[in-house]
Amino acid sequence: MSTRGYVGRDVLLEFSLQPPSTESASLVFERLGMCRGKELALSWDTADATGDTSAAFLKENLATFKSATISGDYVSMASDIENQAAFEDHILTPPAATGYQPFMWLRLTFGTGGRVVTGNFLVNENNSSAPYADVVTATFSAMSNGELTSVRA
After folding, report:
1. In angstroms, rounded to a whole number, what is the distance separating the alpha carbons of residues 103 and 121?
2. For the chain, what is the largest distance between any 2 Cα atoms, rounded to a whole number of angstroms?
3. pTM for the full predicted model
4. 26-52 pLDDT, tens per residue?
5. Distance of CA 12 to the CA centre of its chain
6. CA separation for the pair 106, 104 (Å, rounded)
7. Backbone angles phi, psi at 30, to 5 degrees
8. What are the structural domain ranges in the chain?
């Protein structure tokens, strides 16, 4: 594995419009083209475990539930080659196959030989911006909907 750094354009975001119950080995992923920024955020909920015998009156915490969010932004394109229409149509009108919910599988690949994170997500936000004298862009955010896998490429 290389020890050099890499830039955000080397991070690949892909999606598969399959239901959450689909076996991950059978998924076929499409690239979400024209992405600029991609973000993976992991967080843990905590429970306060502080008691009257906690050392030095310091608060003690336990991790309870983990959540993950993938978000990104992209330049909107009119061609189908970027797969944006399929991505956006699935969010706008989720099919019966996903229980009419905007579920999709997302995969982030961090640079050559880097980490690959895959999981099922619920897209909870999709925004398009069309300024009068600038390029049309879109942003999205998706919340984890089950287990994530993380492997080295």
Report:
1. 6
2. 64
3. 0.89
4. 999 999 999 999 999 999 999 999 998
5. 11
6. 6
7. -115, 145
8. 10-45+64-152
